[in-house]
């Protein structure tokens, strides 16, 4: 987490060094002649609000800045690959309560695993300084995970569950000439209903953009940008799930799964069979054979996104200094994402 804060801190220092060129992502050093009247009016603003600190100095230089307080409503959709390692299994059923036991990679092999998440969140924020914004994140949504086991048997597990999200973030911004830069780091805790504890996710976003003002409405504009996003999640996961929830249509698949397992098991050496027999795998397969969907499988694993970075493109329409509409898409890389948001801003 310290590394993410270092990135934002360094960017904040750069922003202060570049303060003659711009205080925020909406600032421009060179003013088009058709906006000169609006710029001159900014220099006459008597800004007696607490935030952002140094707001009066910014207006005296003729720079425009957003209203300090905002409330953003977001819809976010993400699809990404997931890598799984360090698998541990246990089983809990009648007369059985096996503890989590590590499963050797010699016995388990995964194919392509994916996660689709859909969340709605609220993001209150505050420009503490003209170049430094802090915000909170509070959301709720659903997640769809597909895990494909290819060894010892071909088996697809599909799990749908709700997820609650909360966290905080910090954003640093600077305008240099006709373009602006932002560096954004946030830290969220995501609690799916089937996990024992929330999973922490760290996100860093870097963006480079340009804002185009409307000729007759200088407080309205369209901003476009490109950027990159890095996602890093807490790797350790612990939870439990019913067999019937992990394997939809268990009754119809039970015989096929058991037969494939038997063929695989019979091909093992005596030493390998002894290792498998000391894991919860035989008990789980036995419960599958009984089509006992109520059996609880306990699991532990290390998981991480397949690719840490992906590319972004975005667009924002600012109707006024109070209302903005924004969309951003992740198009480059393994992670595909779509953000749609509305932002209302006001003075404090």
Please characterize this protein's 3D structure.
There is one protein chain. The protein is an alpha+beta fold. The protein has a single domain, classed as Beta Barrel (Lipocalin). Helices cover 20% and strands 51% of the residues. The chain contains 7 helices and 15 strands. A 10-stranded antiparallel β-barrel has the order 1-5-6-7-8-9-10-13-14-15. The radius of gyration is 26 Å and the shape is elongated. The two termini are 31 Å apart. Residues 4-31 have low confidence and may be disordered.
Terminal Cα span: 31 Å
Shape: elongated
**SSE string:** HHHEEEEEEEEEEEHHHHEEEE
Total individual domains: 1
**Parts with pLDDT < 50 across at least 5 consecutive residues:** 4-31
Q: What's the number of helices? A: 7
The biggest beta sheet is recorded as: 10 strands, antiparallel, barrel
CATH class: Mainly Beta
Radius of gyration: 26 Å
User: How are the strands of the largest sheet arranged?
Assistant: 1-5-6-7-8-9-10-13-14-15
- Helical/strand content category: alpha+beta
Give the total of beta strands: 15
CATH architecture, by name, is: Beta Barrel
SS strand fraction: over 45%
Instruction: Provide mean pLDDT, rounded.
Output: 85
Helical content band: 10-25%
In the CATH hierarchy, the third-tier topology is known as Lipocalin
């Amino acid at each position: 987490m310290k590394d993410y804060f270092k990135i934002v801190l360094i960017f904040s220092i750069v922003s202060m060094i570049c303060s003659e060129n711009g205080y925020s992502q909406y600032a421009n050093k060179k003013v088009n002649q058709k906006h000169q009247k609006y710029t001159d009016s900014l220099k006459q603003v008597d800004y007696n609000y607490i935030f952002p600190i140094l707001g009066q100095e910014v207006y005296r230089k003729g720079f425009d800045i957003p209203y300090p307080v905002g409330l953003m409503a977001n819809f976010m959709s993400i699809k990404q690959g997931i890598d799984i390692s360090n698998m541990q299994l246990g089983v809990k059923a009648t007369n059985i309560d096996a503890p989590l036991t590590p499963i050797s990679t010699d016995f388990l092999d995964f194919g392509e695993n994916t996660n689709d998440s859909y969340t709605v969140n609220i993001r209150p924020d505050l420009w503490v300084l003209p170049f430094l914004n802090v915000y909170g994140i509070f959301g709720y949504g659903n997640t769809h995970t597909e895990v494909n086991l290819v060894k010892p048997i071909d088996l697809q597990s599909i799990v749908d569950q709700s997820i609650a999200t909360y966290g905080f973030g910090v954003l640093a911004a600077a305008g240099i000439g006709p373009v602006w830069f932002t560096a954004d780091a946030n830290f969220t805790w995501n609690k799916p209903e089937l996990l024992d504890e929330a999973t922490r996710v760290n996100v860093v976003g870097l963006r480079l953009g340009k804002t185009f003002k409307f000729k007759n409405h200088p407080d309205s504009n369209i901003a476009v940008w490109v950027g990159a996003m890095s996602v890093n999640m807490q790797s350790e996961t612990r939870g439990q799930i019913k067999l019937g929830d992990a394997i939809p249509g268990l009754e119809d698949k039970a015989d096929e799964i058991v037969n494939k397992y038997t063929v695989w098991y019979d091909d093992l050496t005596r030493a390998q069979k002894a290792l498998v027999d000391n894991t919860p795998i035989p008990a789980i397969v036995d419960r599958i054979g009984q089509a006992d969907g109520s059996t609880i499988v306990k699991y532990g694993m290390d998981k991480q996104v397949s690719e840490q970075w992906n590319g972004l493109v975005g667009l924002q329409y600012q109707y006024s200094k109070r209302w903005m509409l924004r969309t951003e898409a992740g198009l480059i890389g393994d992670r595909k994402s779509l953000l749609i948001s509305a932002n209302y801003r006001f003075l404090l």
